[in-house]
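Working notes for the structural subgroup meeting. M.R. asked for a predicted model of this chain before we commit to crystallization trials. I am recording the input and output together here so anyone reviewing the notebook later can reproduce the run.

Input as submitted:
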Amino acid sequence: MNDLLNRIHDIGIVPVIAIEDAKKAVPLAKALVKGGLPAAEVTFRTEAAAGAIKAIVAEVPEMIVGAGTVLTKEQADRAIEAGVSFIVSPGFNPEITKYVLDKGICMLPGTATAGEMEQAMMLGLDAVKFFPAEQNGGVDKLKALAGPYKTLRWMPTGGVNTANLVNYMSFDQVLACGGTWMVKKDLIEGEKWDEITAICKAAVKNMLGLELRHIGINSVDERKAEATAKTLCALFDLEYKPGNSSIFAGKEFEIMKSIGKGTHGHIAIAAINVDRAVYHLSRAGAKFDESTRKSDGRGTKAIYLDGEFGGFAIHLVRK
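Returned structure, recorded in token form:
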């Protein structure tokens, strides 16, 4: 189950789908995949849920498909029979949670209070849904709960949108966010697949928060590095900050004291979460040099892409 949760973490956003016509499930799933979100929680609020899940599992194998709004054992059985990888409930029902876990299926029960979260942890869970997220205090509440619950991860759902997504995704203990804004009822009924794909792409871009951090410039030796750094500082009124292997001119330039990666140097791109950025850039065709990966207890801190780009190496760094 940890592998599954790690995949959900790297995807970052789980669209929550209420679908009325199972025939629209496959083109909808393909639109989500094309938009960079190969995951979905299909809610049992409609009669078409089980059929939609079964169709997606059969025809869009790259999708991670879960069932949502599961309230009964009968619904859980139907979801499992349809082929789901995980099950989500809006609230915490110990009996249903244990029933699903005993079936060997990943369960993310809905929780809103510390008491519910502790009960879920007593059943062996290290990830739960936080619902409804905004109405229950949002990310500020999760940060307060993180003190005693340092190993628990949350999937906030309910009120999450483009305006507050980054606030949630910037918090390390957020597993992923559930959302409906890219799969609104009118978009599905109108079969506006290209629009759904575009909304997903925008959501992924927003979540990753990629931005230029600094330009690294190679130098043949420390003397050349000092001269280049001092020149840049004088020209652009930047702070001169010497280090062991490089000198920073402000935050914008890192002048290496020797020839580092890249013919000319490197470009550092900052991401809110490097592991999520690696996942999504890999889906776009990027390859990474695993020998350069630097990690800590929060995940990957930095990693270089393979190859050069205009004579520069590129590496991702954590914001």
